[in-house]
Amino acid sequence: MGDSGDAVTARWLQSAGLQHLAASSAAGGSGGDYRGGMAGLGGAGAGSMLPSLLMQGYGPQSIEEKQRLYMLLRSLNFNGESAPGSMSEPYTPTAQSFGGGNSVESFYSPELRGDLGAGLLDLHAMDDTELLSEDVASEPFEPSPFMPKEIDDEDEDLTSGSQQVPVDNYGLVTSEKESTARENNVAKIKVVVRKRPLNRKELSRKEEDIITVHDSSFLTVYEPKLKVDLTAYVEKHEFCFDAVLDEHVSNDEVYRETVEPIIPIIFQRTKATCFAYGQTGSGKTYTMQPLPLRAAQDMVCLLHQPVYRNQNFKLWLSYFEIYGGKLFDLLSDRRQLLMREDGKKQVCIVGLQEFEVSDVQVVKEYIERGNAARSTGSTGANEESSRSHAILQLAVKKHIVVKDTRRLRDRDANEAKNTKAVGKISFIDLAGSERGADTTDNDRQTRIEGAEINKSLLALKECIRALDNDQIHIPFRGSKLTEVLRDSFVGNSRTVMISCISPNAGSCEHTLNTLRYADRYFIMSK
Ligand SMILES: Nc1ncnc2c1ncn2[C@@H]1O[C@H](COP(=O)(O)OP(=O)(O)OP(=O)(O)O)[C@@H](O)[C@H]1O
């Protein structure tokens, strides 16, 4: 106990690798003109400049520092149990914390749902080291419970022979009861959170996993914090969503939870949008890339059902990218595309190549081709991929049989006119947004890109909010992204948002931003 508090603090910080804080703390001790609170710090007592330094922004800056501080805090003030209720005091309750009871009922109460005030996503580039790799696209498919059972030839004959399936003038099934029930079972907006595992780099740095998924719908984030008097504490943040998927969940299960229930209603004139967002490296691309392939498999399967086959339904695929407010066709040598509105105020992307696809292998080839175009177009592959929104669309169209022989001669020219859109699903791998502080390191172009990304994420948020409030005016002109998605926002639409989060302590701030962003949608959708 012979050491001054500042010397003790300095030694702790030094051992935790926070040298710049240690030096400042030691200097403060010798000056002796500042005496902060003595509480916390393992009972050693530490008058110090550290609180003020932390307040002045001298706190841990890098992930490593944050992680070391987190480890330090754990060894000082709490025992490192991550389970709820095991936190040592002091513990600061937040608007979203459970309180003592931890009852699920109290969790759902509006008082504990947190406020709606946070601003734009504040995500930034983090560690995107490859995790123990997995070929995401090659996971085997399992049969879907949402899909109609395979009908054998006998059944098929019975169905087509009986001619009892009523159809509307689109040729769609009008078994009202059945389709209404299906649509009602699929929420207008569904919010799903996916936590990725710690990656190799995070594991090698012995980073802590600060997120606990309690069951399939709620999670807790344990945020390491320091009071100004250096008392270490953990702030607990509880969140509830339609679904929370932990690090053990496979891409196939993600598909089942998110997209699979929507597929049948795409054939019932529904337009759906599924997008992933989160900070760079949180797993957006990993999550989004396999989804269209799985969706296409189910859609092809539905197309083969007699009711749709007889109505001449076909599946079409297109894949493009929005980069810096401009559109590029990923299946046509990154040709720049123009967006126009037709007389019926329908959005048309002039020149966008659409391909009719009738088997999954072909879909896979197109997706791979598009993905390759996305990365080869970049100077630093990851940089650009995280700075563009990639949009893959699968559209169901009804082909109208042309009986007029004169028109038949000019069949190709009339192809576009001979199809009628039925439904569509868009998969959007959103760009990760920028953290304000990072932009000082970036060049002008990078900052412009960041601003564009933030603008489009904000516009997307506004559109979904308006959509959810059933507003007449949907502000889709807020960005290229929302303009392009305009027809997916109006009429009979469904939206699935997948929030991807990183579990390490160093990403805590960004993870909380992502979760708060998702939380607002979740509240809106209730
Ligand atoms: N759930 C997961 N399980 C295993 N590995 C994952 C998971 N999520 C992400 N990864 C891995 O983490 C790394 C980063 O993921 P990914 O590229 O999808 O991030 P991102 O959010 O799309 O980043 P960016 O915004 O830069 O495009 C990849 O190596 C990916 O394989």
UniProtKB/TrEMBL annotation:
A GO cellular-component term linked to this record: microtubule
Name of the protein described by the UniProt record: Kinesin-like protein
Binding residues annotated for ATP, in chain numbering: 278-285
Matching Pfam families: Kinesin
GO biological processes: microtubule depolymerization; microtubule-based movement; regulation of cell wall organization or biogenesis
Organism superkingdom: Eukaryota
Keywords linked to the UniProt accession: ATP-binding, Microtubule, Motor protein, Nucleotide-binding
Span of domain Kinesin motor: 188-524
Organism encoding this protein: Panicum virgatum (Blackwell switchgrass)
Similarity section: Belongs to the TRAFAC class myosin-kinesin ATPase superfamily. Kinesin family. KIN-13 subfamily.
SMART domains: KISc
GO molecular function: ATP binding; microtubule binding; microtubule motor activity
